[in-house]
Every structure is written in C-alpha cells, then in structure tokens.
Amino acid sequence: xxxxxxxxxxxxxxxxxxxxxxxxxxxxxxxxxxxxxxxxxxxxxxxxxxxxxxxxxxxxxxxxxxxxxxxxxxxxxxxxxxxxxxxxxxxxxxxx
Length: 96
Description:
Elements: E1 11-17, E2 25-29, E3 38-45, E4 48-62, E5 65-72
Parallel strand pairs: 1-5
Antiparallel strand pairs: 1-2, 3-4, 4-5
C-alpha cells in the first residue's frame, strides 16, 4: 500500500521521461483519490493533434508536495515519424 495521500482536486507535479516530452514537467490535478496510473499528453505535430501516452513508474511525497514520474509508451501513442525521416512535405497537400 502506498503511503502517498492525495485527494480529488489536489495538484501534483508530473515528470516525463522519454518521448517528445522528455525532461519536462507539468502541474496536474488529481481526478480521484488516487494518482493517475497513465496520462495522455497532446501536442500538435505537423498541424495534427497527436496523443502521447505515459505510464506511472514512481511517485513520492515530501511534506505536502507530490511528484509522479511517467515513462513514454510508444506502442500506446499515436505514431509519429522521426524528424530525420520526415523529408520535404511542402507540396504534400497540393491539389492538381
């Protein structure tokens, strides 16, 4: 059993590892009396809303500050071409 106490509406810090949000943090609000096991983060990639899934790997609480570490799960995220594989798409949507 976890010794972390959190309630619906409490804020916690999410720390992201891997994927496009690697090394970033976000202040999130608990939606229940438990920490999220998984979160989905959205970003625009080439003009399209893209979903990235992260799963909880570790959580800690120091006094009233809670932080949760999340690891990127590419198999459960929207596919995105690697930057070096995108090439020139400047005319991709041109109509003749």
